[in-house]
Amino acid sequence: MAGIYIHVPFCSRFCNYCDFYSVKQTGRIGAYVESLLCEIEQRRDFFNNCNAKPTTLYIGGGTPSLLSNEQISRITEKVCSCFNIHSPQQFREFTVEVNPDDVTSDYLSALHLTGVNRLSMGIQSFDDDDLRWMNRRHDSAMAKEAYSTARHCGFDNISLDLIFGYNLLSEDKWIRNVETMISLKPEHISSYQLGIEKNTKLGAQFASGEYIPLPEDRSYLQYSILQRMLAGAGYIQYEISNFALPGFEAIHNSSYWDYSPYLGLGPSAHSFDGNKRSWNCSNIGKYISALQCGDSCSESELLTLNDKFNERVMLSLRKAEGLDIKAIKEMFPADDYNLFVRQLKFSLEKGLVIEDGNKIKIPSDKLFISDGIIRDLFI
Ligand code: SF4
Fold it and tell me: Is the model's pTM score more than 0.90?
């Protein structure tokens, strides 16, 4: 299931924790769109070359909702014409990330008409003090209003994000956040532990001692609360950070975890064609000038068999359905597989992974520490 990702690298202000590539120079959006259209044209053979057909389109960022409806329409039309897609309605999933404070009824209705069939909204918290601390542009009331507007505009597949694991967040507050989330009944929920990244305001506050992270056992407790409450409300955890009502698992993101090809367009976007990984420069100025001169600003690396083995293990074990060990036995040399099986034996003995037919998976109560479990299985 191949997909297309478009990165819109603009934010009108930066959240204190975020290290995604983004700039505040919204005056460059027009030039960015022109360059993006050139890049789409330039890479029109991407899927032919890897024998795949894109079935999903995801416009993320940054803040895609800073683009006008007309700009999103032009981008969509260009994608369709270059990748032989009859109409945007043909995408099994067409998602746009929107910020709650950008959302109006006119804006969302026009997105719906363009063929967008799924919205992803970065709510992060329903507590106004925490939202201010994160430097988000919206408050809790705006988030609920935006969600209700999206429903009225016909969106029947909405994903909402929540963050846990930061030191302002008590368990009581977290339970209230999750209860509010459940009461809205979104089809999909993504929830991430707050990470401390170097080049962010939070990273600087951590380095100076101003921010003391929440102890890991408290983050684990919050994650367990999330799993328990969402399971009770009928959500299925299908990946470490993702929960969905039955039938609403994200198709686009699943293609990353299934190791399918994807094309990333826009500054800092990554692509994967089955053998090679490539990434665009994280610099809006260089991106605009390179593309307008008919050049590209991307670099790439060819993956070794070892890389492919480890990536498959990592991506599959993120998913609740786990890793098909019979399939990797058929795909990789016997020496690699045998080494993996020797390592796997220790993890099975310790109960860090469990067997289920041809698959191995990380039990639900160990998903919080999955990074370490997966690393120990690398060959
Ligand atoms: S979290 Fe989203 S809105 Fe906030 S800075 Fe990052 S990309 Fe921009």
Answer: yes
